[in-house]
Amino acid sequence: MTIAFYMDENVHRGITDGLRMRGVDVITVQEDKRIGFSDILILDRANELTRVLFSQDDDFLVEAKRRQLGKIDFIGIIYAHKLKISVGDCIRDLEIIAKAASWEELANSVQYLPL
């Protein structure tokens, strides 16, 4: 089973486009008409859609920690700092995760890129 992604509104469009060209299932916050929603609501929406959240916004790390400490389940977050990974490397790593990871590996955790 492959992993589907929910892309935060701050993610570079080239990452989304590159993943789609590689057959990875991606939907953006913009396409879902959720621009400007709080991090809590965005992560809740990712859970509703059964999609791992990909973000380059470190505020999601705070929300993930809050949920981990409160034992509140979430589908998982993949985080990449914009200055520490290129668009191409981000696409490569997300494609690997989408095609090789399981939901169990990502649930209630934060995966950092680059791998």
From TrEMBL:
Pfam families assigned to the protein according to its UniProt record, in alphabetical order: DUF5615 (PF18480)
Boundaries of every DUF5615 domain copy: 5-62
Source organism superkingdom: Bacteria
The protein, known as: DUF5615 domain-containing protein
